């Protein structure tokens, strides 16, 4: 089983076959449509063109672009995928960058029964890149034939590597010209006369390596027909520039103008549909046993419904700005909790506690809805506050004032439990039926009789609301135990394991 599904080119052959047919079959909705938009940009923009796909870490850049690479190939658009991070142990990126081009050319010439011109162009590219590598001091020991290189650990050499590299090309302009000319000739032989190169994971590289890669793209790959895509985190590259060139926050405009040298445009990666993302992981199939035991219901509208669980997870994830990677992890964690809890699951409360526990934000933003039984100043507290309102007495008269004074039971009272309210209800009904005998103002009994029906109706109506609410939560006065149960298993994961075993 493949654990990390970000890079499809690391899959085994059988798994990769599925993605080769339909690269976006396991993606959240919107990925394929977004891919079509980028494909249209590639086919219609004048080249050379460098596009940044900007997004935060963990938002699925590699997940998208590896599938996008195969999507382009399926549509007869030549595309090379290059992971800069996997090669940043080298002093300079030119050798590893060129290696991927050679590998792609060689594979293409073997798979498409290439023409003599195509094979000749591939060999020419190889020879030119080999000459460039040998002409630079940093790669004197490079062996492109086996795609490996020996890197010197001499600190002085590392410091001057970039300068030596550029100086070598100043002295050897013929190599650079030959390289661009040969690569241009190869691109012209392609069906769409365009070659796409995706430079991934640049924001994970060493600052010096990341900047050198951009410089190489700018100076050596500004070739007609070449379309380069760099999925990265813009802020991370800003920090690289600031650390290398001494830009600070006050001179951020210098950083921005510096980036304009490299990128023709900056686009934001498509936004995920959080609800659909959750439904792909948490659904009737993955919770089959919980549904069978009626711990979660796929069709009810109560607190343990599957739909409520999915909605709350997606809402909290979006509010907390969880990345796709974090959402995947959170969904799987919640799935595990659901399978361990051997009772009807309070979907909202469990989700809220877990998101607050794993939130990256200093201020917790996952709040319970007012309808929830544990919400501060929520509906339950409002229902357990009782006072007969003025409207029941049709105005403010002396009888009402006397009524409130002599019957504290009907004043503003907050009950802590359902039982307290039930005891009050029994007493209230009894007193109303007995005529509400006060200890003073005996003449008031006759006057109150005109309000007796209204008071009785109001109290009964209030009881119906409370009964309906506690039936929804399937609970009486055990809220404290339930609350402690969820806090215990969330704060101490081993307790969950004890429950399961």
Describe the structure.
The protein is α/β, with parallel strands linked by helices and 501 residues long. It has 3 domains: 8-13 and 34-268, Rossmann fold, CATH 3.40.50.300; 276-369, no CATH class; 380-472, no CATH class. Helix content is 54%, strand content 7%. The protein is built from 23 helices and 7 strands. The chain has helices spanning 13-21, 31-44, 61-74, 94-111, 116-134, 155-159, 161-171, 173-188, 207-220, 234-245, 252-259, 274-281, 288-292, 306-319, 324-340, 347-358, 379-383, 398-406, 418-433, 444-448, 452-472, 479-491, 493-500; strands spanning 49-54, 78-83, 195-200, 226-232, 265-268, 385-386, 413-414. A 5-stranded parallel sheet has the order 2-3-4-1-5, sandwiched between helices. Strands 6-7 form a two-stranded antiparallel sheet. Helix 2 (31-44) packs across helix 3 (61-74), helix 7 packs across helix 8 (173-188) and helix 12 (274-281) crosses helix 15. The model is unreliable at 136-171 (pLDDT under 50).
- Rg computed from alpha carbons, rounded to a whole number of angstroms: 35 Å
Q: What structural class do you assign from the helix and strand content?
A: alpha/beta
Helix share, percent: 40-55%
- What CATH architecture of the largest domain do you see? 3-Layer(aba) Sandwich
Give me the number of helical elements. Answer: 23
Averaging pLDDT over every residue, what do you get?
78
Overall tally of domains:
3
- The string of secondary-structure elements, in order, is HHEHEHHHHHEHEHHEHHHHHHEHEHHHHH
Outline: elongated
Poorly predicted tracts of residues: 136-171
**CATH level-four homologous superfamily name of the largest domain:** P-loop containing nucleotide triphosphate hydrolases
Order of strands across the biggest sheet? Answer: 2-3-4-1-5
CATH fold label of the largest domain: Rossmann fold
């Amino acid at each position: 089983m493949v654990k990390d599904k970000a890079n499809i080119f690391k899959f085994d052959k059988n798994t990769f076959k599925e993605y080769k047919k339909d690269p976006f079959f396991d993606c959240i909705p919107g990925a394929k449509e977004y891919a079509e938009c980028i494909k249209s940009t590639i086919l219609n923009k004048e080249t050379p063109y460098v596009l940044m796909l900007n997004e935060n870490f963990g938002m699925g850049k590699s997940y998208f672009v590896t599938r996008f690479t195969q999507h382009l190939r399926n549509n007869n658009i030549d595309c090379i995928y290059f992971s800069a991070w996997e090669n940043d142990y080298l002093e300079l990126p030119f050798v590893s960058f060129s290696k991927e081009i050679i590998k792609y050319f060689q594979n293409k010439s073997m798979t498409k029964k290439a023409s003599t011109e195509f094979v000749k162009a591939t060999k020419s590219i190889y020879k030119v890149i080999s000459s460039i590598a040998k002409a630079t001091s940093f790669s004197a020991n490079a062996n492109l034939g086996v795609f490996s290189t020996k890197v010197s650990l001499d600190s002085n050499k590392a410091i001057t590597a970039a300068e030596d590299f550029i100086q070598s090309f100043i002295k050897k302009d013929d190599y650079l010209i030959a390289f661009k000319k040969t690569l241009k000739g190869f691109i012209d032989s392609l069906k769409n006369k365009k070659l796409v190169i995706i430079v991934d994971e640049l924001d994970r590289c060493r600052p010096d390596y990341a900047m050198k890669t951009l410089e190489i793209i700018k100076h050596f790959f500004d070739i007609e027909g070449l379309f380069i895509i760099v999925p990265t985190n813009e802020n991370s590259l800003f920090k690289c520039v600031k650390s290398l060139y001494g830009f600070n926050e006050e001179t951020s405009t210098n950083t921005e103008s510096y980036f304009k040298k490299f990128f023709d445009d900056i686009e934001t990666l498509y936004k995920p549909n959080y609800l659909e993302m959750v439904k792909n992981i948490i659904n009737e199939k993955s919770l089959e046993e919980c549904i069978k035991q009626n711990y979660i219901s796929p069709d009810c509208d109560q607190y343990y419904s599957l739909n409520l669980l999915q909605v709350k997870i997606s809402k909290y994830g979006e509010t907390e700005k969880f990345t796709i990677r974090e959402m995947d992890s959170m969904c799987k964690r919640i799935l595990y909790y659901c399978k361990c809890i051997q009772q009807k699951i309070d979907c909202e409360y469990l989700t809220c506690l877990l998101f607050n526990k794993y939130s990256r934000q200093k201020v917790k933003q996952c709040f319970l809805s007012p309808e929830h039984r544990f919400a501060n100043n929520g509906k339950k507290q409002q229902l357990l506050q009782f006072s007969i309102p003025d409207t029941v007495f049709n105005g403010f008269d002396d009888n009402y004032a006397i009524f409130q004074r002599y019957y504290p039971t009907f004043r503003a009272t907050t009950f802590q439990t359902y039982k307290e309210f039930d005891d009050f209800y029994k007493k209230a009904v009894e007193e109303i039926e007995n005529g509400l005998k006060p200890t003073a103002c005996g003449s008031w009994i006759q006057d109150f009789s005109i309000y007796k029906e209204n008071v009785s109706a109001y109290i009964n109506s209030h009881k119906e609301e409370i009964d309906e609410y506690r039936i929804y939560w399937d609970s009486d006065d055990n809220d404290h135990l339930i609350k402690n149960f969820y806090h215990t298993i969330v704060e101490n994961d081993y307790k969950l394991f004890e429950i399961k075993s």
